[in-house]
Amino acid sequence: MLVQRSAPPVLPTYGSYKQYLRFDFYYACAYCSTSEVEAGAIGFEIDHYKPRVEGGSDDYENLMWSCEHCNGGASKGDWWPTADQQAQGIRLLRPDFDNLAEHYDLDGTELKSKSVTAETSITMLRLNRETLRRLRSFRDRLYRAKGATMLGLQALQQISLDHLKPELALKLIEIRREMQINEAELKEALDACTIRAFNHSPMLDPDPNKKHHATARKAYLESIKAILPPPPTIASS
What does the alpha-carbon distance between residue 140 and residue 144 come to, in Å, rounded to a whole number? Predict the structure, then answer.
């Protein structure tokens, strides 16, 4: 799915774009697609696609939402391709610019490259590491389970009552009636189960009471003298 960037106002620091980035990148890593929920103990952070040490800006277009693994020094770090390498397609893929389906194939749980750019991304970011292959396997099982559930619900609607025992026919009629009554709720639940809703972790949402808690904490620590006062200024003679 191609990321469609929003158009936030110009903000004073790149860190201020955090919530825009989380939403635009579907609450998932721009590089390995691991969601905030799936990541568990792995943290997320703002990445400069072109590193600042290489002249990358703090402009929103240069910022990505990334897991620590992909952005860390052992993976992407501050690497940036030379002009010659870029001419050969040696760079990292970005979902807000590239159609990933044109660069990757998924063979079971392993990504296969269809371009030099994909090969660079797979190798540098270790996109076939075991944790990601396990995650792809889990996603596949979840998708197939959802499909089987939908088929089962459709089958319940299509079963003929003619050859069923009376008690079973009555039970089936009751189930169908409940499905019709709850149809609106089911539709609402399915509509809410979007990629963003599934990937989003409230643990990374801003705390609306942060300032209040910080003020209360400071006051309490001062009351028990847990915060030492600054040393007195020595006046020069």
Answer: 6
